[in-house]
């Protein structure tokens, strides 16, 4: 079974290379973990 980062690593990152500070895989993992933990949208 593949781990979540293995799935994320196949995604194309649409951001400009020179402006990237964080890995796309890390951002996606944090977003999914936040939703699982009950995070809500701030308004």
What does this structure look like?
By secondary structure, the protein is mainly alpha-helical. The chain is built from two helices and no strands. Helix content is 42%, strand content 0%. The longest helix is centred in the last third of the chain and has 13 residues, at 24-36.
Fill in the keyword field for this structure.
mainly alpha; 42% helix
Tell me the fraction of residues in β-strands, as a range.
under 5%
Q: How far is it from the N-terminal to the C-terminal residue, by CA?
A: 38 Å
Instruction: Kindly state the percentage of residues in helix.
Output: 40-55%
How many strand segments? 0
What would the principal axes of the Cα set say about the shape?
flat
List the uncertain runs: none
Q: How confident is the prediction overall: mean pLDDT?
A: 81
Structural class by helix and strand composition: mainly alpha
User: What characterizes the major β-sheet?
Assistant: none
Show the helix and strand layout:
Layout: H1 4-8, H2 24-36
Short description:
The chain has 2 helices and no strands.
